[in-house]
Amino acid sequence: MPQVDRRRRSTQVAVLVLLSGLIYACSQIPTYDNPQPLVAINQTYSYQEDIRPIFESKCIACHGCYDAPCQLKLTSAEGVERGASPLPVYDGSRLEDMMPTRLGVDALNATDWRGKGFFSVLHGEAAGALDARDTAVLFKMIELGRGHPLPANSRVPEDVRLGIGRAQSCPTLSGFADYAEANPHGGMPFATTGLTDQEYQTLSTWIAEGAVTEPAPYAPRAAERAAVERWESFFNQSGLREQLVARYLFEHLFAAHLHFPDVDGSHFYELVRSWTPPGERILPVATVRPNDDPEGQFYYRLQPITRTIVEKTHITYALGDARMERYQSLFLESDWKVSERPGYGYDERSNPFEVFAAIPARARYQFMLDNAEYFVRNFIRGPVCRGQIATDVIRDQFWTVFEDPDQEAYVNDAAYRDEVTPLLGLPGQDSDILALGPEWFDYKGKRNDYLKLRQSHYAKRKTDGATVDEIWDGDGWNRDALLTIFRHHDSASVRRGLHGQVPRTIWVMDYPLLERTYYELVVNFNVFGSVSHQAQTRLYFDLIRNGAEHNFLRYVPADARQAIYDHWYQGSGKIKDAISYTDLDTDTSVAMDYESVDDRQDESVVMHRFATLLMERADKVVGPPDTLNRCGGATCDRPGLSDSQRQAEALLRPLTRETGATLPAITRLPEVTFLRVTDGDERWVYTLVHNRAHSNVAFMFGEDSRLLRDEDTVTVLNGTLGSYPNFSFDVPLAELDPFVSAFRAIDTQDDLHALAARWGIRRTHPEFWTLMADFQAYVRETEPTEAGVFDVNRYENL
Predict the structure, then answer these.
(1) Secondary structure element (H or E) that encloses residue 58, with its range
(2) Which DSSP string corresponds to 602-651?
(3) What keywords are annotated for this sequence in UniProt (predicted)?
């Protein structure tokens, strides 16, 4: 035995040495010089007036967020000055957390960024160079793109890899010649129709004259300044209760784009922690997470957003007079006390229910319900859902509803709340690779213990079973009570209302589930985290989904639950169910009217009956019927449509009744397809959403083996959905009938390419950027506060 132990220890030491070597290698950050440019005395162009609009129309669609190629963010002058880095933010293999690289937070000038692995794309040093353009990587990329144009509306060559999974090439000035030789189609704008002659000339002249930038102007009017002062005063009150409420609100609003609906022309703002008080220049507290210890006195500040808005991070939240009154009534009018400020340590970060226990639970839950769609948007637009490993835990289309706050157990039963709160902790705080297994088993066990207690408590509380009035009806006015979530393989979207066909699964969220999901995917998620941190987050989100499913099954007959559950967990899902989840409650009855359901083993019939009961319960907030996807009446026309639009929708509607078995073309449709239909001066925008069916969504890998393509469907939605269009079509109304017929006839990938050649707007189409701008304009016309630049990194090569 001693010899075996020595061998085991030797093996462990060897593994640790290897891991240490890998960690050391991964932690090396290149540094770069910060060359000073020669600047022309007279500038032909202004950055804000002439250069920024070009970046907005042709560049930011790829270079707008953490996933910008080479971290080159062109949404602001600061991002342009910072430059590019070969270090990827999204890396599912790194063994330790990487240094964060947030603009305006982790370094405040170009010199500091050079020491953090970023090189200038505007200025460089080249022996014998007499022209500033010869020393600018940005110009060389633009010149490369202009010198190798692709044929109009052609498919991009197969050797040019597209998509977010492509390897990043981040050439510096010294290596650019080799890059250009190896990647003749690797210039900018990448694999799309290029700059106009005027745009190219403008950028060329600007760079030749020194590429001078200036910050975006910020000149709020008196009413807006007063709103900022009022809200900063609210967030920085001195009482212990007020400080705890401010911390709770900050941790729930830090990712929001805040605006003042009572002030015309209001800027958007971000709520940040600053070392400086109101009235002084903001100096952000550079913690990785919003609930990390600031280690010093700080102030909550509203920082104006002057960069270009991109749709994928644009999560809006209004701060108006009504909101202030709501906060006062929810949090500060009742009599509750704080004995001491909670800390920011490991235990506090992992369990927000204990940190904020002093704030009435009912107030916390109601606060989240008031803007449930905002919080769900945070779940699915946050950095955690950039990659497919994060989103494969959810199905492609499902509805989400919430327990009524008047009956939800956690917020109304203090004894139950005290019993389960210690079990509601969240993993991921320890990002060490060796913590992955222990953390997962610990928190999985706590979650399963909690779910058993919850099932027992609810069964005893209502011995006759769940009633439909336990589902929140939005208090008769709030449409956030009913949400539809769509997954698009490696991204997701949410929309108010019940859209599409009755889904295969429905989530019911109570307060513990809603709050845990938010903290796990938003507050506690570190986009710069290690593979251990990312895996812990993903695995726990799997438990969250399973918990929402258990919550829903209370509302269907006991003898129908197992059949529905088995349909969700087919094949390998049965193994995951056996080793990871707690047992299903198939004993407690339900006190809802399922008398019309003859075959309770037919999960589709049961789901449709529940949908009917749900719509009756929430009839005041369910909104107009989704006649594009669920037409059950004599007429399917939406009210208020012109004759032309009724004609368009009559041609599109039949597609939603098909499946992959009856219409194989559906299985070849991209995840998110924008469709513009025109008729003279009229134009309408729709989104075709490909809903892929799965035997289960219980595993991190091997998704292709779990696809049930014959059960795929398509949902047709009015307007745009999603931040990442995968393709788009532009079809005159007179040609919509042959377009639909051609789509129905698709049998091979070549057939799809032929459809794209006739009606599609490929990346290389001369009108590609014009159409993308029109989709953004449509959002601005219909939902002005929600408009932002769409991301085309996922745009497919059809």
Answers:
(1) helix 52-58
(2) -HHHHHHHHHHHHHHHTTTTS-S--TTT---SS--PPTT--HHHHHHHHH
(3) Heme, Iron, Isomerase, Metal-binding
3-state SS, residue 789:
strand
Instruction: Give the C-alpha separation, 642 to 648, whole Å.
Output: 10
Q: How confident is the model at residue 28 (pLDDT cuts 50, 70, 90)?
A: low
Look at the block and give the residue holding tokens 């002249």: 205
Name residue, tokens 């895996």.
535
Query: Which of 602-607's residues contact partners 24+ apart within 8 Å by CB, and which partners?
Result: 602/563, 603/504, 603/560, 603/563, 603/564, 603/567, 604/502, 606/556, 606/557, 606/560, 606/564, 607/502, 607/503, 607/504, 607/506, 607/564
Q: Specify the pTM.
A: 0.93
HEC per residue, 339-380: CCCCCCCHHHHHCHHHHCCCCCHHHHHHHHHHCHHHHHHHHH
Average pLDDT (741-767) is 97
Tokens of 129: 């160079």
Distance of CA 432 to the CA centre of its chain: 26
The pLDDT, as a whole number, for residue 513 is 97
b/e map 437-473, b = 16+ CB within 10 Å: eebbeebbebbbebbeebbebbbeebeebbbbebbbb
Could you give the CA distance from residue 625 to residue 639 in angstroms, rounded to a whole number?
10
Task: Write down the residue that tokens 């952000």 correspond to.
Answer: 284
Sign of CA dihedral 574, 579, 580, 585: positive
Q: What pLDDT digit, counting tens, does each position of 63-87 carry?
A: 998 889 999 999 999 999 999 999 9
C-beta of residue 198 within 8 angstroms of C-beta of residue 120: no
pLDDT surpasses 50 at 683: yes
Distance CA 99, CA 654 (A): 51
Nearest to 206 by CA among 63, 103, 55: 55
Closest C-alpha among 313, 336, 314, 322 to residue 248? 336
Say whether pLDDT at 7 is over 80: no
> Nearest-CA neighbor of 620 among 479, 500, 469?
479
Q: What is the pLDDT of residues 729-740, one digit of tens each?
A: 999 999 999 999
Are the CB atoms for 624 and 639 separated by under 8 Å? yes
Residue 779 to residues 336, 370, 467, 719, 775: CA-CA distances in angstroms?
Answer: 43, 24, 39, 8, 7
Place of tokens 């009018």: 333
Report helix, strand or coil for 761.
coil
CA distance 795 to 673: 9
- 33 C-beta neighbours (distance < 10 Å), count: 12
Give me the percent of the chain exceeding a pLDDT of 90. 81
DSSP assigned state of 289:
S
Closest alpha carbon to 663 in 694, 718, 709, 731: 709
